[in-house]
Design brief:
Blueprint: E1 4-15, E2 23-34, E3 38-42, H1 49-57, E4 64-69, E5 72-73, E6 81-84, H2 96-100, H3 102-106, H4 111-124, H5 140-152, E7 158-162, H6 170-187, E8 190-194, H7 198-204, E9 207-212, E10 217-223, H8 232-236, H9 239-264
Parallel strand pairs: 3-8, 3-9, 6-7, 7-8
Antiparallel strand pairs: 1-2, 1-4, 4-5, 9-10
Helix pairs in contact: 4-5, 5-6
The structure holds adenosine-5'-triphosphate and magnesium ion.
């Protein structure tokens, strides 16, 4: 039986903009995320996906409800919950290795505590030969691989990923998805992953949470039925793949149309 790692219980969040009444962004969200699960969040722009990740990270707090990690309230950021953004946000004046080891070095940990593991991740991301290069000497995909290694080095229990491959070209994206899948299988980290890409969600996720917008709510949770290990080629010829993809696209279309109508009214 799976254990619950993260729990959202009746979570609501509103933001105020000037003199306008507060805008409810997340409305009464209930969600249990299992230990070691790969969960994708999918929904129209502005439905509150990043807001949800920020709450899980502890960067921000809900107006109502609770977010729990192992049954304990999340109140502040913590190294047990790593975050990866669309932009790799590397320090340009630090080498690849120094970027990856930045966290433990700032904590004052001795080298033997983190260096072997950093070298392990450098190998995993295929950048062993680039340890002493600077970010400006790398491609966008290579930089995002460094960001992945940096996020995983402290051994987080949970990784929160906000469209981490959104800025990459299609081929690099596929490579990154396979890499992420491999590291996730090796580590068993619980992942909450935001994407706009239906194929990406179907390749990576155990479950896909479809959000509705204005205010953000859970509209539907889709169990992704494909056995692992998955390959993009095998999925493409699986008839269930087309069915799942069509269902998701239909929901996204409905939600986007709804938003469009709302904007026009
Ligand atoms: N710190 C903030 N202050 C005020 N409003 C905010 C803040 N953060 C988010 N919002 C508002 O909350 C809504 C949801 O934003 P959010 O970034 O969570 O959406 P999203 O689903 O991640 O969208 P996208 O797919 O475009 O990234 C938006 O209307 C946004 O303007
Ligand atoms: Mg966002």
């Amino acid at each position: 039986m799976s254990t619950t790692k993260l729990q959202l219980h009746a979570v609501s969040k509103a933001f105020s903009h000037g003199k306008q009444p507060p805008q409810t962004v997340l409305d009464d969200i209930y969600l249990d995320i299992h230990q070691g699960e790969f969960l994708c969040l999918l929904g129209p722009s502005g439905c509150g996906k990043s807001t949800l990740l920020n709450l899980l990270a502890g960067f921000d707090h809900p107006d109502q409800g609770q977010l729990l990690l192992d049954g304990q309230a999340i109140t502040a950021p913590d190294p047990s919950r790593g975050m990866v953004f669309q932009q790799p946000n590397l320090f340009p004046w630090l080498t690849v290795l120094d970027n990856i080891t930045f966290g433990p070095r700032m904590q004052g940990l001795p080298e033997p505590h983190y260096l072997p593991q950093a070298q392990h991740y450098l190998r995993q991301i295929g950048l062993e030969r680039y340890a002493n290069h600077y970010p400006w000497q790398l491609s966008g995909g290579m930089r995002q691989r460094v960001a992945l290694a940096r996020a995983w080095l402290p051994g987080p229990e949970v990784l929160l990923m906000d469209e981490p491959f959104g800025a990459l070209d299609a081929q690099t994206r596929l490579i990154m998805q396979e890499l992420l899948n491999r590291i996730w299988s090796d580590t068993g980290t619980t992942i909450v992953f935001v994407t706009h890409d239906v194929d990406e969600a179907l390749f990576l996720a155990d479950r896909i949470v479809m959000l509705a917008a204005h205010p953000g709510r859970v509209r539907e949770i889709i169990n992704v039925p494909f056995a692992r290990p998955r390959t993009p080629d095998a999925l493409l010829v699986n008839p269930d793949y087309a069915i799942a993809k069509r269902r998701i696209l239909q929901i996204l279309r409905e939600e986007s149309t709804h938003l469009f109508d709302e904007a026009l009214s």
